[in-house]
Amino acid sequence: MKRVLSVMTIICAVAMTAQSKVIRVGYTKSIRSIQQAVDLSQNGDTVLVDPGTYMEKNIIIQKSITLKGINYPVLDGENEFAIISVKTSNATIEGFRLQHTGRSEIRDLGAIMIYDSYKVCVLNNILEDTNFGVYVQNSKRCTIKDNSITAYGKDEVQSGNGIHCWRSDSLVIIGNKIKGHRDGLYFEFVKNSLIWRNVSTRNVRYGIHFMFSNRNTYVSNIFERNEAGVAVMYSKNIHMYNNHFLNNWGDAAYGILLKDITDSDISGNYFRKNTVGLHMEGCSRIELYKNIFNSNGWAVKIQASCDNNDFTRNNFLGNTFDIGTNGSLVLNTFTGNYWDKYEGYDLHKDNVGDIPYHPVSMYSMIIDSNPAALMLFRSLIVGLLDKTEKILPGVTPENLRDNKPVMKQIKL
Amino acid sequence: MKKILKYVVVDIVQNKIVLIYTFLLLLISLSVFNLESNSAKGLLSLLNIILILVPLICIIFSTIYIYNSSEFIELLVSQPLKRKSIWISLFGGLASSLSLAFFIGGGIPILLYHADSTGFMMIAVGLFLTVVFVSIAMLAAGMTRDKAKGIGLSILLWLYFSLIFDALVLFFLFQFQDYPLEKAMVCFSFLNPIDLARIQILLQMDISALMGYTGAVFREFFGNEIGVALSFVGLFLWILFPLLLSLKRFNERDL
């Protein structure tokens, strides 16, 4: 019994020492290179890096260690290399300033590259002038949290993505600030992930771009002033709650573009001052409720290829056009929304308008086929045309209507 | 000249119609801002008033005023005064008093409820339209001695600028929709003062929608300072040309 105890004590002690081993790196320390420290370390060790600038040409981490910077030491890629590559499980990278990654036509170079890994955490780093910021490939349960990722991309071809995830599962991406990349966040074949409280602004293409990424949840993110807004395509079971889509202006800029999205939930989002707030193409069975569309050119453009989408209890305020569409076939429902352009009455005083509201104005149909006609908007003749159309619908789809428009703005 | 101007202004300001016009405008503007849930929507309703009602009142009132003061004009002509100064001071009196009426009736409520760039643009545009349509009225009144004909002509001109012109442009757009028409549209807008005014306000209010494809062309032209300046120059020319034309007629006419 005593022997067993002592063996256990020894094992524990060994384990403890192994756990608590800290390797310091710095100009004044015996180990000056991070790669050297990483090579010396064992699973569970911590590598602590002193402030300073380190030119290390792609540090490769293949052990379960914590790499931690004190006061944001600078890791510089000299405009030529990737900075850190991780191929392991249970590793953490925290508190660095990573800058000037290389750019390559052939390989994707980024600040933090995570390949075939499990449970890797990237926390609280500052990334500046990176091609790709954080690059996750074929990994599971990784966390990317509180990083500030800035690039100065000029065109789509020359720049990479802020957070790029490919063929991964169960990622958690929280509180990152991403700016000036091609796509702020990019997901392809990523499943079961949570994207929460990120801010993605002024990117060259999309604030967030995902394709073939099913069962993901997007909560409380802000997407602002991206060249082409946000685009999401070919995915199922998407949940988007309380996101902000702001100030995306341009001929192909959308607050959010949904293409072939099915069985999803979009709620509590706020669309303001976009050329098109929400653009839907080939979408099915999406529940859209409690969203606010404010001061957009078109609040919603819904193509005739969409079916079984349900708009309920949304607020439409001060948009130039509420709904735009491109055909007369309507397979979607609008119920109980608030439309500030509604001119009906409510005799029962139950806060539900007594006559249906037709959110597609005739002129938005005309503009759809003849964009130059936008210049006559708000003129007397257009007003008369719209009024006549409201009384005797001929051009606009008769079935696209809200039968129970709410009289007062819905409090959300 | 100053004396005539003063006389005309005092005469018009005391005129009941102008007082009613001011009061009505004030009433409409205030009620529009108070009734609508948000002031942006109120501004939108006011836009229709500025683009339709203001030109109509200005053109008809000015035409009638000129016909009614034909005896007064004859009296002035018999005095040692230049015809030019008589006509210009008549115009100045009409324009300044109607502008004042618009500013009190429409401008002050806008300043009270919506004093931002959109509001300021609206006031500027309203004042310009007032003067433009006074000028057009002078032309219409100078065309013929027959009062009924003159008023008919001014109503027709108003109808043309506020409705028929846009209908023609729309028709044109659809006939030639296979061609790139953005630049042509910019040119067309200069042919109608109401369109010029409307586009300036459109750029303030519907900027999100205008950023679409054709919008970009328009924004490039009208959206920057040069474009804004150009469109105000356009409005100014719309004041100048009818006025000069009518002045020429008045100079040559046998009263």
Characterise the protein shown here:
The complex is a heterodimer of chains A (412) and B (255). Chain A is mostly beta strands. Chain A has one domain: Single-stranded right-handed beta-helix, Pectin lyase-like (Pectate Lyase C-like). Helix content of chain A is 11%, strand content 38%. Chain A has a 25-stranded parallel β-sheet that branches. Chain A has a 13-stranded parallel β-sheet with strand order 3-6-9-12-15-18-21-24-27-29-32-35-38, with no helix packed on it. In chain A, helix 2 links the parallel strand 1 (22-25) and strand 2 (46-49). The longest helix of chain A has 19 residues, at 2-20. The radius of gyration of chain A is 26 Å and the shape is elongated. The relative contact order of chain A is 0.06. The mean pLDDT of chain A is 90. In chain B, helix 3 (39-68) crosses helix 7. Chain B has helices at 2-14, 16-35, 39-68, 70-77, 83-113, 117-143, 147-175, 182-189, 193-205, 207-210, 213-223, 225-252. By secondary structure, chain B is an all-alpha fold. Chain B is globular. Chain B has one domain (2-252). The interface between A and B is large, with 33 and 40 residues.
Distinctive features:
heterodimer; A: 412 residues; mainly beta; Pectate Lyase C-like; 25-stranded parallel beta sheet; 13-stranded parallel beta sheet; 4 helices; 38% strand; B: 255 residues; mainly alpha; 12 helices
Summarize the structure.
With 412 residues, chain A is mostly beta strands.
Assess the beta-strand content of chain B as a share of residues.
under 5%
Helix/strand-derived category of chain A reads mainly beta
The biggest beta sheet of chain B reads: none
SSE sequence of chain B, one letter per element: HHHHHHHHHHHH
What structural class do helix, strand and pairing data of chain B support?
mainly alpha
- What is the percent of helical residues of chain A? 10-25%
Query: How many structural units, i.e. domains of chain B?
Result: 1
Instruction: Average the pLDDT over all residues of chain A and give the rounded result.
Output: 90
Residue share in β-strands of chain A: 35-45%
* CATH fold-level topology of chain A: Pectate Lyase C-like
Our measurement of the CA-to-CA distance between the termini of chain B, rounded to an integer number of angstroms, reads 20 Å
Helix count, DSSP H or I runs of 4 or more residues of chain B: 12
Radius of gyration of chain B from the CA trace? 19 Å
Average pLDDT confidence of chain B is 89
Largest interface: A-B, 33 and 40 residues
General shape of chain A: elongated
Computed over alpha carbons, the radius of gyration of chain A is 26 Å
Identify the CATH class of chain A.
Answer: Mainly Beta
Let me know the number of strands of chain A: 38
CATH architecture identity of chain A: 3 Solenoid
